[in-house]
Specification:
The chain has about 325 residues and is of the alpha+beta class. The chain is built from 9 helices and 8 strands. Helices cover about 45% and strands about 15% of the residues.
Length: about 325
């Protein structure tokens, strides 16, 4: 099933509500926030009340908003599952993992900001982040237009586990899920494809940024110095990461490049290949940049959502290995 505007916006609504409320309180156990006066070592009742209010507000606002904005206008059904694991060459699934990793990151740090110890912060953060995304699947399951996806739940769990496992093993995040986007170019095709792309992905960059899986790349960005430990050479920047990425191209539908337009005309563009892309590049961990600038410490959690533009190697089955002078 193709992504409709409503389907994409419901996920945007949920994600924005979570991140906007959690981000201002975020900070890593390792890095410039570790000695920040905003972090406390014992439970701070005032902050704990703020955290509870925020997390409760997120759940209530998101659930209510999602239902009335996106589900209330569609027919309801008995709870059912939808196997969408083969759609969009799994780009949406990696999006779920990256989103839940970031939600878990910020909810955990918000709990630590309130003075909760690591174990409690992890348990509460995991419950909030997983429950938040699972609520979307429950709504989908009762909607006749969609269906609950076990694949989505699985990749939500993958993003959550990526965070929790690292905190338990190393007390820091050595590997982070990140996102990058470049605007898709459909000008090389005919007018029908251009119209299809506009219908699916929007006409403007702020729409395609969220919708266009052909332009999105999801990354696992790993800090080199963290792995090297004390044996890291002195010349190696502590903020330098090595990143591997996954993307896809040629998608004009969830499963096939075949569709009916709004006038009922049938279009078959199966001759346009759908293929996966694999990337190797460098990146920046903004939390590890040594600085006394408070503004940089404050925006570092935001910056760490996005993979920084660097030269990159790409491999795909049509072009083989390609070098990008700058890839984003």
């Amino acid at each position: 099933m193709d992504w409709t505007k409503e389907t994409k916006l419901k996920y945007l609504t949920a994600t924005v509500l979570a991140l906007v409320l959690c981000l201002p309180l975020a900070g890593q156990d390792k890095g410039p926030w570790a000695t920040s006066p905003y972090r406390v070592d014992s439970l701070h009742l005032g902050r704990a009340r703020t955290v509870v209010a925020l997390e409760t507000g997120i759940a209530i606002t998101a659930s209510t908003g999602l239902y009335f904005l996106w589900y209330n206008g569609y027919d309801q059904s008995r709870f059912h599952l939808l196997n969408d694991n083969y759609g969009w060459l799994q780009m949406d699934k990696y999006g779920h993992a990256a989103t839940n990793y970031q939600i878990m990151t910020f909810c955990y740090n918000m709990n630590r900001w309130s003075g909760l110890d690591k174990k409690k912060a992890l348990i509460i953060g995991a419950s909030v982040s997983f429950g938040f995304q699972a609520a979307v699947e429950v709504f989908d399951g009762f909607s006749e237009a969609w269906g609950a996806s076990l694949g989505d739940l699985g990749f939500n769990t993958l993003g959550l586990v990526t965070f929790v496992a690292q905190e338990m093993a190393w007390n820091e995040q050595r590997i982070a899920w990140k996102f990058s986007f470049r605007n898709g170019d459909y000008g090389g095709y005919d007018q029908v494809v251009e119209q299809r792309a506009r219908a699916l992905y929007g006409q403007y960059i702020y729409e395609s940024f969220l919708k266009d899986y052909n332009g999105q790349t999801y990354w696992l960005s790993s800090n080199i110095s963290a792995w090297a430990g004390s044996s890291a050479p002195v010349w190696l920047p502590k903020w330098l990461n090595l990143a591997v990425g996954y993307g896809a191209e040629g998608m004009l539908g969830a499963n096939w490049n075949v569709w009916y337009d709004k006038n009922g005309c049938y279009h078959n563009y199966e001759h346009i290949p759908r293929y996966r892309q694999y990337f190797l590049s460098l990146d920046i961990d903004w939390d590890r940049i040594p600085t006394r600038r408070r503004w940089l410490k404050a925006v570092a959690p935001y910056l760490n959502i996005i993979k920084f533009p660097f030269p990159a190697l790409e491999y795909n089955r049509f072009d083989g290995v390609r070098l990008h002078a700058l890839y984003f």
